Amino acid sequence: MSRPAIAIVGAGKVGSALGILLQSKGYSVVGVASRTPASAEKLAERLNCPAFSLPLEAVAAAELVFITTPDRAIGQVAADIAAGGGFKPGQIVVHTSGAHPSSILRGVREAGALAVSIHPLQSFAGVETAIENLPGSYFALEGDERAMETAWQVIQDLGGRGFSLAAGAKPLYHAAACIASNYLVAIMHFATGLYGRFGLDRKEAFQALLPLVEGTVNNIGRVGPVAALTGPVARGDGATLEDHLAAFKDAGGLETDLYCRLGRYTVDVALEQGSISSEQAAELKQIFEEGLP
Fold this sequence. Notes:
By secondary structure, the chain is α/β, with parallel strands linked by helices. It folds into two domains: about 5-165, NAD(P)-binding Rossmann-like Domain (Rossmann fold, 3-Layer(aba) Sandwich); about 180-290. Helix content is about 55%, strand content about 10%. It has 13 helices and eight strands. It has helices at about 15-25, 35-45, 55-60, 70-85, 125-135, 150-155, 170-180, 180-195, 200-225, 230-235, 240-245, 255-275, 280-290, and strands spanning about 5-10, 30-35, 50, 65, 90-95, 115-120, 140-145, 160-165. An eight-stranded mixed beta sheet has the order 3-2-1-4-5-6-7-8, with helices on both faces.
């Protein structure tokens, strides 16, 4: 299968990584545009392709267009290109948002082009880490059926795996991704802050907790989240939980509330694991209920 010529509109972390990786797999990059001219020129220099001041100009010769702007700009960027006659029948236009369906690409289908969303289920701290992390990642696909063969080819060329979902499922899909990634960051911030109460700064606390987190993630990878659960809830150790809550008396209400609500959820995981009885589960939930501020 020949690889289509591509354009990148939005030269941030994801757009840059996609352009670099796909060019290495035989895709011809025919244009780059970005809100910041300097970022477009930087990526274009790396890809040895033209940088354009207007997205309309960048997509003119492309068969496959990636709009990799921030989510809030996707619809307007697509609409502006469409208003200038930039989309043409048979062209495939992609956005990489996890939260929004392909229909956010305003004006694409009206021009006879195809719309699809290809969202990498991954976290990117920078362009180089994105280049490292994209291969092997999962991608969520949603959009026009006639675009799917090309979309699957892109995922395969990126060394990824994928699944399709309905447009209406995207908000819940994205919420789950945020829980797994963003809320993990928040939980680490929560935990390292507690360590500060007995003298460790956040950097020291993070270094102390990181091996535990890495070991936990490794366990989840080997046996799944239910079997990987350990600790006082999994043991039905209500006395330890009561000690925890006594220590939280000097913490803020938000921290105590978060600890108790996460604990209650964890009780159900332990029950699914089979490490506690329904009677123990009820006792543990009561402890957390009484601990709520």
